[in-house]
Amino acid sequence: MAITKVAVAGGTGNLGPAVVNALVEANFQVTLLSRSSTHEIDSRVKIQVVDYNSLDSLVTALTGQEAVVDVLPSGSISVEIPLRLIEAAHKAGVQRFIPSEYGCDTSHPLTSKLPVFGDKVTVVNRLKEISAQDSAFTYTPVITGPFFDWGLKMKFTVNLSGPSTPIYDGGDTPFSTTTLAGIGRAIAGVLEHPDETKNRYVYVSQAEVTQNKLLALSGKTVEREDISTADLEKKAYEAVKLSPPDFRTFAVNLIRLAVFNPAYGSAFTKTDNELLGVHKFSEAEIVDLVKQYS
Ligand SMILES: NC(=O)c1ccc[n+]([C@@H]2O[C@H](COP(=O)([O-])OP(=O)(O)OC[C@H]3O[C@@H](n4cnc5c(N)ncnc54)[C@H](OP(=O)(O)O)[C@@H]3O)[C@@H](O)[C@H]2O)c1
Protein backbone atom coordinates (compact mmCIF):
# COMPACT_ATOMS: atom_id res chain seq x y z
CA MET A 1 0.00 0.00 0.00
CA ALA A 2 1.60 3.32 -1.05
CA ILE A 3 -0.07 6.59 -0.13
CA THR A 4 0.48 9.85 -1.99
CA LYS A 5 -2.85 11.73 -1.90
CA VAL A 6 -3.81 13.02 1.53
CA ALA A 7 -6.76 15.12 2.68
CA VAL A 8 -6.35 17.12 5.90
CA ALA A 9 -9.57 18.14 7.68
CA GLY A 10 -9.12 21.12 10.01
CA GLY A 11 -5.64 22.01 8.77
CA THR A 12 -6.05 25.72 9.52
CA GLY A 13 -6.13 25.60 13.34
CA ASN A 14 -3.55 25.28 16.14
CA LEU A 15 -2.01 21.98 15.03
CA GLY A 16 -3.15 21.77 11.39
CA PRO A 17 -0.65 24.10 9.67
CA ALA A 18 2.31 22.11 11.08
CA VAL A 19 0.71 18.91 9.79
CA VAL A 20 0.06 20.35 6.33
CA ASN A 21 3.63 21.66 6.22
CA ALA A 22 5.17 18.31 7.22
CA LEU A 23 3.08 16.46 4.61
CA VAL A 24 4.05 18.90 1.85
CA GLU A 25 7.72 18.67 2.87
CA ALA A 26 7.43 14.87 2.64
CA ASN A 27 6.10 15.23 -0.94
CA PHE A 28 2.51 14.14 -0.32
CA GLN A 29 -0.17 15.72 -2.52
CA VAL A 30 -2.19 17.58 0.09
CA THR A 31 -5.81 18.73 -0.11
CA LEU A 32 -6.99 20.88 2.76
CA LEU A 33 -10.64 20.49 3.72
CA SER A 34 -12.07 23.69 5.15
CA ARG A 35 -15.41 25.41 5.71
CA SER A 36 -14.02 28.44 3.89
CA SER A 37 -11.82 29.16 0.88
CA THR A 38 -10.33 32.34 2.33
CA HIS A 39 -7.39 30.82 4.26
CA GLU A 40 -3.89 31.71 3.13
CA ILE A 41 -2.17 28.44 2.38
CA ASP A 42 0.97 27.05 0.75
CA SER A 43 0.65 27.21 -3.05
CA ARG A 44 1.42 23.47 -3.23
CA VAL A 45 -1.77 22.71 -1.27
CA LYS A 46 -5.21 22.47 -2.83
CA ILE A 47 -8.13 23.80 -0.80
CA GLN A 48 -11.51 22.09 -0.92
CA VAL A 49 -14.49 23.74 0.73
CA VAL A 50 -16.72 21.22 2.53
CA ASP A 51 -19.89 21.10 4.55
CA TYR A 52 -19.12 18.83 7.52
CA ASN A 53 -22.87 18.33 8.01
CA SER A 54 -23.28 16.80 4.55
CA LEU A 55 -22.14 13.25 3.82
CA ASP A 56 -22.40 13.93 0.07
CA SER A 57 -20.13 16.98 0.35
CA LEU A 58 -17.52 14.94 2.23
CA VAL A 59 -17.70 11.92 -0.10
CA THR A 60 -17.20 14.23 -3.10
CA ALA A 61 -14.23 15.92 -1.41
CA LEU A 62 -12.61 12.60 -0.46
CA THR A 63 -13.08 10.75 -3.74
CA GLY A 64 -9.61 10.04 -5.14
CA GLN A 65 -7.89 10.56 -1.77
CA GLU A 66 -5.85 7.73 -0.24
CA ALA A 67 -5.61 9.00 3.34
CA VAL A 68 -7.52 11.36 5.61
CA VAL A 69 -5.83 13.17 8.48
CA ASP A 70 -8.41 14.56 10.92
CA VAL A 71 -7.12 17.61 12.84
CA LEU A 72 -10.54 19.00 13.70
CA PRO A 73 -11.12 19.97 17.33
CA SER A 74 -12.51 17.27 19.61
CA GLY A 75 -15.06 17.73 22.37
CA SER A 76 -16.02 21.25 21.30
CA ILE A 77 -17.68 19.97 18.09
CA SER A 78 -20.34 17.28 17.74
CA VAL A 79 -18.90 13.76 17.52
CA GLU A 80 -21.22 13.33 14.51
CA ILE A 81 -18.71 15.37 12.47
CA PRO A 82 -15.73 12.98 12.76
CA LEU A 83 -18.09 10.00 12.50
CA ARG A 84 -19.48 11.45 9.25
CA LEU A 85 -15.96 12.12 7.99
CA ILE A 86 -15.09 8.44 8.65
CA GLU A 87 -18.23 7.25 6.86
CA ALA A 88 -17.41 9.49 3.90
CA ALA A 89 -13.78 8.31 3.82
CA HIS A 90 -14.92 4.69 3.78
CA LYS A 91 -17.49 5.35 1.04
CA ALA A 92 -14.88 7.19 -1.03
CA GLY A 93 -12.45 4.25 -0.83
CA VAL A 94 -9.84 5.97 1.39
CA GLN A 95 -7.25 3.47 2.69
CA ARG A 96 -6.03 5.12 5.92
CA PHE A 97 -7.79 7.34 8.45
CA ILE A 98 -5.81 9.17 11.14
CA PRO A 99 -8.30 10.35 13.81
CA SER A 100 -7.98 13.59 15.76
CA GLU A 101 -6.04 12.31 18.81
CA TYR A 102 -2.60 13.98 19.29
CA GLY A 103 -2.49 14.06 23.06
CA CYS A 104 -3.05 11.75 26.03
CA ASP A 105 -3.08 7.99 25.53
CA THR A 106 -6.80 7.37 25.13
CA SER A 107 -6.16 3.62 24.85
CA HIS A 108 -4.94 3.60 28.48
CA PRO A 109 -7.48 1.88 30.79
CA LEU A 110 -7.87 4.89 33.11
CA THR A 111 -7.51 7.68 30.53
CA SER A 112 -10.08 6.10 28.22
CA LYS A 113 -12.68 6.36 31.02
CA LEU A 114 -12.29 10.14 31.45
CA PRO A 115 -15.38 11.78 29.92
CA VAL A 116 -13.28 14.51 28.28
CA PHE A 117 -11.90 11.83 25.94
CA GLY A 118 -15.28 10.16 25.29
CA ASP A 119 -15.59 11.42 21.72
CA LYS A 120 -12.03 10.33 20.86
CA VAL A 121 -12.77 6.83 22.18
CA THR A 122 -16.06 6.69 20.24
CA VAL A 123 -14.24 7.65 17.03
CA VAL A 124 -11.53 4.98 17.41
CA ASN A 125 -14.16 2.35 18.25
CA ARG A 126 -15.96 3.21 15.00
CA LEU A 127 -12.69 2.93 13.05
CA LYS A 128 -12.08 -0.49 14.62
CA GLU A 129 -15.57 -1.63 13.62
CA ILE A 130 -15.25 -0.57 9.98
CA SER A 131 -11.72 -1.93 9.56
CA ALA A 132 -12.83 -5.28 11.04
CA GLN A 133 -15.51 -5.50 8.32
CA ASP A 134 -13.41 -4.11 5.47
CA SER A 135 -9.68 -4.86 5.45
CA ALA A 136 -9.08 -2.17 2.78
CA PHE A 137 -9.97 0.51 5.33
CA THR A 138 -7.31 1.06 7.99
CA TYR A 139 -6.60 3.54 10.79
CA THR A 140 -3.79 4.85 13.01
CA PRO A 141 -4.30 7.01 16.14
CA VAL A 142 -1.18 9.13 16.84
CA ILE A 143 -0.45 9.66 20.57
CA THR A 144 1.94 12.53 21.29
CA GLY A 145 1.46 13.77 24.85
CA PRO A 146 0.72 17.46 25.38
CA PHE A 147 2.03 19.78 22.66
CA PHE A 148 5.53 20.83 23.84
CA ASP A 149 5.94 24.30 22.24
CA TRP A 150 2.22 25.21 22.17
CA GLY A 151 1.77 23.89 25.75
CA LEU A 152 4.48 26.24 27.01
CA LYS A 153 3.20 29.15 24.91
CA MET A 154 -0.36 28.70 26.19
CA LYS A 155 0.94 28.04 29.76
CA PHE A 156 -0.91 24.71 29.70
CA THR A 157 1.93 22.53 31.02
CA VAL A 158 3.65 25.18 33.15
CA ASN A 159 3.70 28.98 33.26
CA LEU A 160 7.38 29.86 32.91
CA SER A 161 6.83 33.60 32.59
CA GLY A 162 5.01 33.80 35.93
CA PRO A 163 4.34 35.56 38.17
CA SER A 164 3.02 32.20 39.43
CA THR A 165 2.39 28.73 38.06
CA PRO A 166 0.22 25.84 39.20
CA ILE A 167 2.33 22.79 40.11
CA TYR A 168 0.51 19.47 40.26
CA ASP A 169 1.27 16.70 42.80
CA GLY A 170 4.65 18.27 43.61
CA GLY A 171 5.78 18.73 39.98
CA ASP A 172 7.82 15.56 39.57
CA THR A 173 5.45 13.55 37.33
CA PRO A 174 7.30 12.69 34.08
CA PHE A 175 5.32 13.14 30.88
CA SER A 176 6.04 12.64 27.17
CA THR A 177 5.68 15.71 25.00
CA THR A 178 5.99 16.56 21.28
CA THR A 179 6.14 19.82 19.32
CA LEU A 180 3.62 20.73 16.61
CA ALA A 181 6.32 20.12 13.97
CA GLY A 182 7.17 16.77 15.59
CA ILE A 183 3.51 15.71 15.38
CA GLY A 184 3.43 16.73 11.70
CA ARG A 185 6.52 14.58 11.10
CA ALA A 186 4.90 11.66 12.95
CA ILE A 187 1.81 11.85 10.74
CA ALA A 188 3.95 11.98 7.58
CA GLY A 189 5.90 9.00 8.99
CA VAL A 190 2.68 7.00 9.47
CA LEU A 191 1.70 7.60 5.84
CA GLU A 192 5.23 6.69 4.66
CA HIS A 193 4.96 3.42 6.62
CA PRO A 194 1.36 2.32 6.13
CA ASP A 195 2.01 -1.39 6.68
CA GLU A 196 3.95 -1.00 9.94
CA THR A 197 1.36 1.43 11.35
CA LYS A 198 -1.81 -0.31 10.17
CA ASN A 199 -4.68 -0.55 12.68
CA ARG A 200 -2.63 0.33 15.76
CA TYR A 201 -1.83 3.25 18.02
CA VAL A 202 1.55 4.87 17.44
CA TYR A 203 3.40 6.83 20.15
CA VAL A 204 5.85 9.67 19.69
CA SER A 205 7.71 11.77 22.23
CA GLN A 206 10.43 14.35 21.64
CA ALA A 207 11.13 14.76 25.35
CA GLU A 208 10.21 13.32 28.75
CA VAL A 209 10.03 16.21 31.17
CA THR A 210 8.47 17.20 34.50
CA GLN A 211 7.10 20.56 35.58
CA ASN A 212 10.01 20.92 38.03
CA LYS A 213 12.54 20.17 35.27
CA LEU A 214 10.97 22.76 32.95
CA LEU A 215 11.04 25.35 35.74
CA ALA A 216 14.67 24.55 36.59
CA LEU A 217 15.77 24.74 32.92
CA SER A 218 14.04 28.07 32.46
CA GLY A 219 16.23 29.60 35.19
CA LYS A 220 13.21 31.69 36.21
CA THR A 221 11.97 32.20 39.75
CA VAL A 222 8.24 31.72 39.52
CA GLU A 223 5.93 31.42 42.50
CA ARG A 224 4.50 27.89 42.87
CA GLU A 225 0.81 27.25 43.52
CA ASP A 226 0.69 23.67 44.74
CA ILE A 227 -2.42 21.80 43.60
CA SER A 228 -3.23 18.10 43.88
CA THR A 229 -4.57 16.24 40.83
CA ALA A 230 -7.29 14.88 43.16
CA ASP A 231 -8.44 18.48 43.65
CA LEU A 232 -8.29 19.11 39.87
CA GLU A 233 -10.60 16.16 39.33
CA LYS A 234 -13.02 17.29 42.06
CA LYS A 235 -13.17 20.82 40.63
CA ALA A 236 -13.75 19.45 37.10
CA TYR A 237 -16.94 17.69 38.17
CA GLU A 238 -18.05 20.71 40.24
CA ALA A 239 -17.61 22.93 37.14
CA VAL A 240 -20.11 20.95 35.06
CA LYS A 241 -22.71 21.19 37.83
CA LEU A 242 -22.62 25.00 37.67
CA SER A 243 -25.41 26.90 35.96
CA PRO A 244 -24.42 27.43 33.20
CA PRO A 245 -21.90 24.56 33.21
CA ASP A 246 -18.24 25.53 32.84
CA PHE A 247 -17.18 22.98 30.20
CA ARG A 248 -13.77 24.58 29.66
CA THR A 249 -12.69 24.07 33.29
CA PHE A 250 -14.14 20.56 33.15
CA ALA A 251 -12.10 19.67 30.05
CA VAL A 252 -8.84 21.39 31.01
CA ASN A 253 -8.83 19.94 34.54
CA LEU A 254 -9.42 16.38 33.32
CA ILE A 255 -6.75 16.69 30.61
CA ARG A 256 -4.28 17.98 33.23
CA LEU A 257 -5.26 15.09 35.52
CA ALA A 258 -4.31 12.67 32.70
CA VAL A 259 -0.98 14.45 32.13
CA PHE A 260 0.14 15.11 35.71
CA ASN A 261 -1.12 12.05 37.61
CA PRO A 262 1.29 9.18 36.79
CA ALA A 263 -1.49 6.57 37.00
CA TYR A 264 -2.77 7.76 33.57
CA GLY A 265 0.30 6.68 31.57
CA SER A 266 1.53 10.08 30.41
CA ALA A 267 5.19 8.94 30.22
CA PHE A 268 5.23 6.49 27.32
CA THR A 269 7.15 3.28 27.96
CA LYS A 270 8.07 2.91 24.27
CA THR A 271 7.74 5.08 21.20
CA ASP A 272 7.64 4.83 17.40
CA ASN A 273 9.99 7.81 17.01
CA GLU A 274 12.56 5.88 14.99
CA LEU A 275 10.07 4.32 12.55
CA LEU A 276 8.30 7.64 11.97
CA GLY A 277 11.44 9.79 11.75
CA VAL A 278 10.61 11.86 14.84
CA HIS A 279 13.67 13.52 16.34
CA LYS A 280 14.26 13.04 20.09
CA PHE A 281 15.50 16.30 21.63
CA SER A 282 18.89 16.58 23.30
CA GLU A 283 19.06 18.36 26.67
CA ALA A 284 20.46 21.42 24.88
CA GLU A 285 17.48 21.48 22.47
CA ILE A 286 15.04 21.17 25.39
CA VAL A 287 16.77 24.13 27.08
CA ASP A 288 16.55 26.19 23.85
CA LEU A 289 12.83 25.52 23.55
CA VAL A 290 12.15 26.27 27.22
CA LYS A 291 14.06 29.57 26.99
CA GLN A 292 11.83 30.68 24.09
CA TYR A 293 8.78 30.53 26.38
CA SER A 294 10.36 31.75 29.65
N1 LIG B 1 -1.97 17.57 23.16
C1 LIG B 1 -2.28 18.85 23.26
O1 LIG B 1 -1.63 19.62 24.01
C2 LIG B 1 -3.38 19.40 22.42
C3 LIG B 1 -3.63 20.78 22.43
C4 LIG B 1 -4.63 21.28 21.58
C5 LIG B 1 -5.34 20.41 20.77
N2 LIG B 1 -5.07 19.07 20.80
C6 LIG B 1 -5.80 18.15 19.92
O2 LIG B 1 -5.40 18.42 18.57
C7 LIG B 1 -6.52 18.25 17.69
C8 LIG B 1 -6.71 19.51 16.86
O3 LIG B 1 -6.99 20.58 17.73
P1 LIG B 1 -6.75 22.10 17.32
O4 LIG B 1 -6.68 22.87 18.59
O5 LIG B 1 -5.63 22.20 16.34
O6 LIG B 1 -8.12 22.43 16.57
P2 LIG B 1 -8.71 23.90 16.28
O7 LIG B 1 -7.58 24.81 16.04
O8 LIG B 1 -9.68 24.27 17.35
O9 LIG B 1 -9.57 23.66 14.95
C9 LIG B 1 -8.97 23.17 13.76
C10 LIG B 1 -9.81 23.58 12.56
O10 LIG B 1 -11.05 22.88 12.59
C11 LIG B 1 -12.04 23.63 11.93
N3 LIG B 1 -13.19 23.79 12.84
C12 LIG B 1 -13.23 24.47 14.00
N4 LIG B 1 -14.46 24.41 14.55
C13 LIG B 1 -15.21 23.67 13.69
C14 LIG B 1 -16.56 23.26 13.70
N5 LIG B 1 -17.42 23.61 14.68
N6 LIG B 1 -17.00 22.51 12.68
C15 LIG B 1 -16.17 22.15 11.68
N7 LIG B 1 -14.87 22.52 11.62
C16 LIG B 1 -14.40 23.27 12.62
C17 LIG B 1 -11.42 24.99 11.59
O11 LIG B 1 -10.99 24.93 10.22
P3 LIG B 1 -11.78 25.70 9.02
O12 LIG B 1 -12.25 27.01 9.59
O13 LIG B 1 -10.70 25.83 8.00
O14 LIG B 1 -12.90 24.79 8.61
C18 LIG B 1 -10.22 25.05 12.51
O15 LIG B 1 -9.17 25.86 12.01
C19 LIG B 1 -7.69 17.87 18.58
O16 LIG B 1 -7.80 16.47 18.63
C20 LIG B 1 -7.30 18.36 19.95
O17 LIG B 1 -7.89 17.62 21.01
C21 LIG B 1 -4.11 18.55 21.59
CA distance, first residue to last residue: 45 Å
Helix content: 25-40%
CATH topology tier name of the largest domain = Rossmann fold
Whole-number mean pLDDT: 97
Overall CATH class of the largest domain:
Alpha Beta
- Which architecture of the largest domain per CATH? 3-Layer(aba) Sandwich
CATH superfamily of the largest domain: NAD(P)-binding Rossmann-like Domain
Strand content: 5-15%
Strand order of the largest sheet: 3-2-1-4-5-6
Number of distinct beta strands: 12
Radius of gyration: 19 Å
**Secondary-structure element string:** EHEEHEHEHEEHEEHEEHEHHHH
What is the number of helices? 11
Outline type: globular
Structural class of the secondary structure composition?
alpha/beta
- What small-molecule ligands were found? NADP nicotinamide-adenine-dinucleotide phosphate
What low-confidence regions span 5 or more consecutive residues with pLDDT below 50? Answer: none
How does this structure look, described?
- With 294 residues, the protein is of the alpha/beta class.
- It has two domains: 5-145 and 178-203, 3-Layer(aba) Sandwich (Rossmann fold), CATH 3.40.50; 148-176 and 206-267 and 279-292, UDP-galactose 4-epimerase, domain 1, CATH 3.90.25.10.
- It has eleven helices and twelve strands.
- The protein has helices at residues 16-25, 55-62, 80-91, 118-133, 148-153, 180-192, 211-218, 229-241, 247-260, 273-276, 283-292; strands at residues 5-9, 29-34, 46-49, 67-70, 96-98, 138-139, 142-143, 164-168, 175-177, 202-203, 207-209, 223-227.
- The strands form four sheets. The protein has a six-stranded parallel β-sheet with strand order 3-2-1-4-5-6, sandwiched between helices. Strands 7-10 form a two-stranded parallel sheet. Strands 8-12 form a two-stranded parallel ribbon.
- Strand 1, helix 1 (16-25) and strand 2 form a beta-alpha-beta unit.
- Helix 1 (16-25) packs across helix 6 (180-192), helix 2 packs across helix 3 and helix 8 (229-241) packs antiparallel against helix 9.
- The protein is globular and about 55 Å long.
- The model has no long low-confidence stretch (mean pLDDT 97).
- The site of NADP nicotinamide-adenine-dinucleotide phosphate has 23 residues, from loops.
- Pfam families: NmrA.
